[in-house]
Amino acid sequence: MWDYTDKVLELFYNPKNQGTIEETDQPGVKLATGEVGSIACGDALRLHLKVEVESDKILDARFQTFGCTSAIASSSALTEMVKGLTLDQALKISNQEIADYLGGLPEAKMHCSVMGQEALEAAIYNYRGIALPSHEDDDEGTLICSCFGVSESKIRRVIVENNLTDAEQVTNYVKAGGGCGSCLANIDDIIRDVKEKAGVAAQNHHSPGLPQSQPPSAKPLTNVQRIALIQKVLDEEVRPVLIADGGDVELYDVEGDKVKVLLQGACGACSSSTATLKIAIEARLQDRVSKNLVVEAVQP
Ligand code: FES
């Protein structure tokens, strides 16, 4: 018997926002749908969003889930969390925040929160007509777990975003390794590689004189400290995530509140690089350095 929180049980027995959203001819409103998982693998989630076009606000959210107690509770929690947010705000929701909303999930059920976060991303990317990032692409020879259809890029992403350290945790978060087990050695190799790359990225620009990451409300920084902090946040918090997805970023220049960066590898070629900039880099720098920063990509 799983040790579920009261919130998980409440949303399982009385799920909020279950169902679909009726097509509407209401002017200025559009629907978006995101679908992840498969019934064959045990869990599937279809998320429906009603979006006010002018403000980019989510007016309503509904879900249809095939899965266990925690899959239903996670889906219901997600729909409650996104209502009233803009699409950019919603994209910042992490799988950990979905789990936190529920008062926690058993680690073996964390894949349900990952499924929710991925369905949200899929719905918003569909709405914006952006091709899904490569972690959704299992058709390019990067399939690691054939039992559950999980790609290398998806495994790398979940390791970085949740700071996972062993294959059992990866199984808990994305199911990979939970079938025949023949992919477990590959998952170990990926974990080792992600950690090594993250270590290199953090060391490349290490300097004992750099200021620590701090909230925007801290004492104003000098220009030199500000640029150093931007570099530090890019190296320690942004680059490991991009490297895990086959990309990278380099700080090119800082002019006032404009941060110019060079996107490299998969990020530079990716059709969703604008979203990558806004979400992964600008939001992180605004959070850690200054809410006025604007990130702009420059060509090498
Ligand atoms: S290939 Fe991953 S569990 Fe079988």
Automatic annotation (TrEMBL):
Q: Which UniProt keywords apply?
A: 2Fe-2S, Iron, Iron-sulfur, Metal-binding, Nitrogen fixation
Which residue numbers delimit the NIF system FeS cluster assembly NifU C-terminal domain? 230-295
Which terms does the UniProt entry file under GO BP? iron-sulfur cluster assembly
**Cofactor(s) needed:** [2Fe-2S] cluster; Fe cation
From the UniProt record, which GO molecular function terms apply?
A: 2 iron, 2 sulfur cluster binding; iron ion binding
Name the family the entry cites. Belongs to the NifU family.
Q: What does this protein do?
A: May be involved in the formation or repair of [Fe-S] clusters present in iron-sulfur proteins.
Q: What is this protein called?
A: Nitrogen fixation protein NifU
Organism for this UniProt entry: Chrysosporum bergii ANA360D
Gene coding for it: nifU
